[in-house]
């Protein structure tokens, strides 16, 4: 299910400029690795601003996805 959601979000992002501040933290975490290079800095800044307010589940998912990106 998470893969489907991430795919749908990635498709949406590919067709429009995205205001990442309007997305939930869970949505941002789900699309890690699917963001256009031209949008990456904007995405990273928004996600980094959310780290201090993430709950334990969100932090765990964030770290898991971050490790996948670095491979």
From TrEMBL:
Region (Disordered): 46-71
Transmembrane segments: none
Gene3D superfamilies membership: HP0721 helical bundle
The UniProt record lists the keyword ATP-binding: no
InterPro entries to which the protein is assigned, alphabetical: DUF1104, DUF1104_sf
Record keywords, A-Z: Signal
Signal peptide extent: 1-16
Biased composition regions of type Basic and acidic residues, renumbered to the chain: 46-64
Pfam assignment, any one: DUF1104
Stated name of the protein: DUF1104 domain-containing protein
Biological source species: Malaciobacter canalis
The organism's taxonomic lineage, starting at the top: Bacteria, Pseudomonadati, Campylobacterota, Epsilonproteobacteria, Campylobacterales
């Amino acid at each position: 299910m998470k893969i489907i959601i991430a795919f749908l979000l990635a498709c949406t992002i590919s067709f429009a400029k995205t205001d990442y501040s309007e997305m939930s933290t869970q949505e941002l975490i789900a699309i890690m690795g699917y963001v256009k290079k031209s949008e990456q800095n904007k995405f990273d800044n928004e996600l980094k601003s959310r780290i201090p307010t993430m709950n334990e589940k969100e932090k765990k998912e964030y770290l898991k996805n971050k490790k996948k990106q670095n491979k």
